[in-house]
Amino acid sequence: MRTPPSAPDTVTGTKPPGAEDQAAAARYVRQLFSDVSARYDLLNHLLSMNVDRYWRWAVARDFRHVLGRPTARVLDLCSGTGDLSLALARQGVAPVFSSDFAHSMLTRARAKYDGTRLPERSRIPVLAEADALQMPFPDASFDLITCAFGFRNLADYPGGLREILRLLRPGGELAILEFAEPTGFLAPAYSFYFHHILPAIGEWLTGVRGAYRYLASSVDRFPKGQGFVEMMRAAGFKDLRVRKFTGGIALLYVGKSEPRP
């Protein structure tokens, strides 16, 4: 008996277990991050051995030319508990808008912002609970949009890039920091850690089954390196570049919207 061909994968973004469409994928991601929010910071720092702090600091340093302008506006998408938003605020005076669609993440971000002493002229981040695919801001609202370890969780990667492009002012910049896979002698050991040890520790500390197995599968699915660069190019971004962190464990993708004619 001939086996029928499998149905084509019609999901254009992350694909959690059992999610056959974008709505189901979004529901899964929102619930997962709500469930792990209490231990989210601890696990980020513990499982990366605190290197994630450096990555966020380095991203913010790269964009001081925007952050130092009082008239600039910055959006940190999928901001979680706000670590990148705070790093951005520390580097300049531009107001930073933190946006996430998991309410419990933003609640923790608000407590963190209120308890952090920022430089006198820094702007405390503004919170916005919203879906990154349908943001409640008019066209051309921001000079810089950032996203750290959240873009791969979107249910529609091309749609997310189109929405970001809509929100950027002419010549505005985009910075997406995402996990990748190192090459060379680090690759086998890192792959074992990432796919076996990290999920076990994450599940033990959060008590949420499958949470960090989803993390590994979402990184595997995401189009890394040149694949994502080409996706950005197809969406309309210019002046594309990629910066490698820590042997390729994380990659920073940078692009610009079309400048004014």
How would you sum up this structure in a few lines?
With 261 residues, this protein is an alpha/beta fold. It contains 10 helices and 7 strands.
Explain what this protein looks like in three dimensions.
With 261 residues, this protein is α/β, with parallel strands linked by helices. It has a single domain (22-37, 49-181, 223-256), classed as 3-Layer(aba) Sandwich (Rossmann fold). The protein has helices at residues 22-36, 40-47, 51-62, 64-67, 83-90, 103-114, 157-167, 186-206, 211-221, 226-235, and strands at residues 74-77, 96-100, 126-129, 142-148, 168-179, 238-245, 250-256. A seven-stranded mixed β-sheet has the order 3-2-1-4-5-7-6, with helices on both faces. The radius of gyration is 18 Å and the shape is globular.
What series of H and E elements makes up the topology?
Answer: HHHHEHEHEEHEHHHEE
Alpha carbon gyration radius:
18 Å
CATH superfamily assignment? Answer: Vaccinia Virus protein VP39
**What distance separates the N and C termini?**
61 Å
Tell me how many strands there are: 7
Largest sheet: 7 strands, mixed
Tell the overall outline.
globular
Low-pLDDT runs: 1-8
Provide mean pLDDT, rounded: 90
Examine the secondary-structure arrangement and name the CATH architecture: 3-Layer(aba) Sandwich
Domain module count: 1
Helix coverage percent: 40-55%
Amount of beta strand: 15-25%
Number of helices: 10
